[in-house]
Amino acid sequence: MKPLETTFKRKETKYAVAKTDLENLIADLKKYLVEDDYPTSTISNIYFDTEDFEIIQDSLAGKNLKEKIRMRTYLAQPKADSQVFLEIKSKDKTGLGHKYRLMAKPESITQLITRGWVEASIADQLLVEEVQKLRQRYNNLLKSRMYIYYDRFSLKEKKKITGFPYNKIRVTIDQNLTYRDENVSLFAGNKGLPLLDEDIVIMEIKALGDKPKWLQDILDKYGLVEQKFSKYSCAYHKSQGLPYSPRPSKESVGTAYV
pLDDT (tens digit, 9 = 90+) per residue, 28-50? Predict the structure, then answer.
């Protein structure tokens, strides 16, 4: 078993893909990508925020590096003694995404975020310090605020492609996205309200730098333009009765590739 990665620094770009294009798109991607070690997964997330959604509102206002703090599991039916992830995500001023994570039991993570209690099983002091900073910034009022679920299909770049450098590209495709802001628990099933129209899926490209030319050519073939889209922001807007949908990113015009 390969060691758990706990820190990530990469560029993430998102695209809204019509389901009618999905089969052909995946076939084209598989000329350069292979299925991940665990290609299909179910993902359940708990996003922590204040009662009035101050973290996501600050993020939308461009404050505090667009931070998100969440608990995530890839288990279809997590239990109280399951090991799940605590993740803190942020984006710096250059648009580069940073993610820090650790594994612990759901209750241990919840107690850390909501009460500041650190159990012996949580040994990542740097991540704990980040949590405590967030708690202090929001007056120790963080709570489980939003549940988001989706099915994911994952691809990773082939290590040897004649004529192309290896860029550690990963592509994920998420569909059947649902959310709920009541009964926010990992143990209450995956029922919720739809996050997007049923004929749209979200594709995300994760890379260390600019997209390679072969990938840009595939995106151009299907007319895919980088979208500004956040699952949590979308869920927040919909829960408040506010409009929200993927929209072209200003950075998608003239995006460089290598």
Answer: 999 999 999 999 999 999 999 99
87 contacts: CB under 8 Å, gap ≥ 6: 68, 69, 70, 71, 72, 99, 100, 101
pTM of the model: 0.89
How many CB atoms within 10 Å of residue 114? Answer: 15
Q: What is the pLDDT of residue 9?
A: 64
- Inter-residue contact 190 to 77 (CB < 8 Å): no
Nearest in space to 200 (alpha carbons), one of 170, 236, 224? 224
Neighbours of 224 (CB within 10 A): 20
Element (H, E) at 248: strand 247-248
Q: Kindly give the interhelix angle for 125-137 and 106-115, rounded to the nearest 10 degrees.
A: 40
Longest dimension (CA), the chain: 54
Q: What's the CA gap between 19 and 26, in Å, rounded?
A: 11
> Taking 90 as the threshold, does the pLDDT of residue 104 lie above it?
yes
With CA atoms as reference, report the closest residue to 59 among 73, 49, 51: 49
What six digits make up the tokens of 179? 């959310």
DSSP 8-state symbol, 158: -
Give CA 228 to chain center in angstroms: 13
Indicate the DSSP class of residue 2.
P
First CA to last CA across the chain, in angstroms? 33
The first and second tokens of residue 47, run together, are: 């996003």
Neighbours of 148 (CB within 10 A): 24
Q: Which helix (H) or strand (E) holds 60?
A: helix 54-60
Q: Is 73:185 a contact under the CB 8 Å cutoff?
A: no
